Amino acid sequence: GRTLWGYRTDYVFTRRSPADSGYSSRFGSSPDSSLSRRPAISRAALSSTTLAQPIAENAASPSTNGASSITYPSFSRSSTSGIPSTSSTPFTSSTRFDIASPPQASISPSLSRRRSDYIDQSQEAVSGLQNRPIDYPELSTQVIRPPPAVASPALERQDNRPRLPSYSTSSTSQGQLKAPTPPRIESYWPVTYWADSRIGISGLRNLGNTCYMNAPIQCLSASPPFARFFNEGRWKSAINFTNTLGSKGKLTGAFAKLVHAMWANEIPHQTPHDFKASHTICSLNSQYVGTDQHDSQEFLSFLLDGIHEDLNRVVVRQPWTKTPEEEAELEKLPPQIASEQEWRAWKARNDSVIVDYFQGQFRNQMKCLTCNKTSTTYNTFSILSVPIPSGRSGKMPLQRCLDAFFNTEVMEKDDAWDCPQCKQKQRASKQLSLARLPPILVIHLKRFEANGRFSDKIDTFVDFPLKSLDFTSYMPPPLPAGADHGRLNGGVPMSPDDPRSQMPPYKYDLYGVTNHTGNLSSGHYTAYVASGGGWKYCDDSTIKDVDHKQVVSQKAYVLFYKRTKA
Fold first, then answer.
1. How high is the pLDDT of residue 117?
2. What is the mean pLDDT of the chain?
3. Contacts for 541-546: CB closer than 8 Å, 24+ residues apart
4. Which residue, 200, 333, 338, 491, shows the most beta carbons closer than 10 Å to its own?
5. Using one digit for the tens of pLDDT, what is the confidence trace for 68-94?
6. What span, in angstroms and rounded, lies between the C-alpha atoms of 425 and 412?
7. Residue 163's pLDDT band (boundaries 50, 70, 90)?
8. What distance in Å separates the CA atoms of residue 530 and residue 564, rounded to the nearest whole number?
9. Is the pLDDT of residue 106 over 50?
10. pLDDT in tens, 411-462
11. Which domains does the chain have, with CATH numbers?
């Protein structure tokens, strides 16, 4: 047998743990007998084992295994180069040494604990060096190698994926938290009055009956504060990518690109291929695919609604319902306060640059003529569609169209109102009025009326003013001096320089007109726009100066008015 590192055994095939050393293990067979490992030597006996002297260089190799003891030189493993020794229990150089007992398990072991309980005995036969302490480097929880260099901004991957902003809360003076504020996109653009000034203008090429698009786009581009919002790129930071009702900026981006090119004045006319392309207008509304003629007012409504949804500052729309008790309380409020309360509820779900400039508010009141029970609703509008009364030859003043629109209507017979107080259908009056007016008022003259499968056109000449169209008589009067004005505009006074201020007078000047000639299926649309104190005539690619007397004509279809400062 051999004496190997203090253990006596016949063959060593693998190192076994102390827990396994007490079991007999059969490794293989020899010519004369099976080989088995001897029982483990006790720690007490092992501690007194004498290591043999080194073998002389001229000593003969043993001829048979087990004939004599083979003694290996002792050595000590050198410390790691460059790392100072931190061992507290070094092994001393000696021909006799004790094997230390395993260290007691630490309750809270440290990463820097020295492995003094383990000695790789197989290295003892490598050299004749003196035994030295075995030192191990202290482990650290810090990163040893430096972090990689930061990528340059040009190479850095930008993460522009839309995310829902988190809800925010604010504390009251008593330390209590208010209800969470719905997440919003913080984009501010001042809403201002504007005087007559020279605008950027360019013709728009007709791509095949696309005059229904070109005419209203010319009028929108002729609204300087609104156009600047797109020319200066402010729309880019206002896109609501989480709104499923919008195009995630496709429609708004195409519109902004077109308006910017029109104001650049670099070429006489633009070709709006990208605006009408399949990935914008046609993909959002299939009726605009192809070269069919369409209604210009319907396209304008589609365009304003689409831009509003793209730029809606409200990320998460909260449910909007009223209990019967809340509706009853609303009926008791003055119309000025009730409309303001409903407007704030609307803006909590819909708030954009379109709302700022184009949206107003209706007040629709039903009144039972039996018990005088009333029910009032408030609705918003972007385009005011007024009828053209029949039965009069010659010119029709716009005032008569407005009077017909706001006229009180009696609901009876089949149209009788189901009164919630009488619990049955009753004769009732229906009164539609204005509750709020926008900075830009778009008036649609309803020239087309359904007649079976076709639409008839009303060619009546509607006479409308170029200056000082007064809507004060259609609006509710201001609150009396002793009323609670703090409930108006959310309790925040609005600047008189803001055209959204709901204080009289409500006067408007004309700055754009969309015209229509022919019939709905084979007609043509053109536009007049104000610029630098004069007027421009826009007929697709053609732009020319015209006299203001030509602006008011029988062809007028959609009127664009701006509010003027008192």
1. 47
2. 77
3. 541/203, 541/204, 541/205, 541/206, 541/268, 541/269, 542/203, 543/201, 543/202, 543/203, 543/268, 543/269
4. 338
5. 455 555 555 544 444 444 444 444 444
6. 9
7. very low
8. 15
9. no
10. 999 999 999 999 999 999 999 999 999 999 999 999 998 777 777 899 999 9
11. 1-78+122-131 (no CATH), 194-320+350-359+383-388+439-566 (3.90.70.10)
**225-234 long-range CB contacts below 8 Å, 24 or more apart?**
225/190, 225/191, 225/192, 225/194, 225/357, 226/353, 226/357, 226/440, 227/199, 227/200, 227/259, 227/263, 229/189, 229/353, 230/255, 230/256, 230/259, 230/260, 231/256, 231/259, 231/260, 231/263, 234/187, 234/189
The pTM for the full model equals 0.68
Catalytic-role residue among 211, 219, 368, 401: 211
Q: How many residues does the chain have?
A: 566
The letter for the amino acid at 269 is H
Whole-number Å distance between alpha carbons of 504 and 521:
42
Contact (Cβ atoms closer than 8 angstroms) between residue 547 and residue 539: no
Q: Nearest to residue 256, comparing CAs of 285, 277, 235?
A: 235
The b-or-e profile of 50-89 (16+ CB within 10 A means b, else e) is ebeeeeeeeeeeeeeeeeeeeebebbbbebeeeeeeeeee
Return the pLDDT at 321: 80
Question: Per-residue pLDDT for 350 more than 90?
Answer: yes
83-90 contacts, C-beta under 8 A, 24 or more apart = 83/135, 83/137, 84/135, 85/133, 85/135, 86/114, 86/135, 86/138, 87/114, 87/116, 87/133, 87/134, 87/135, 88/114, 89/116, 90/132, 90/133
Judge whether 219 counts as a catalytic residue. Answer: no
- Of the residues 260, 308, 524, 548, only one is catalytic, namely 524
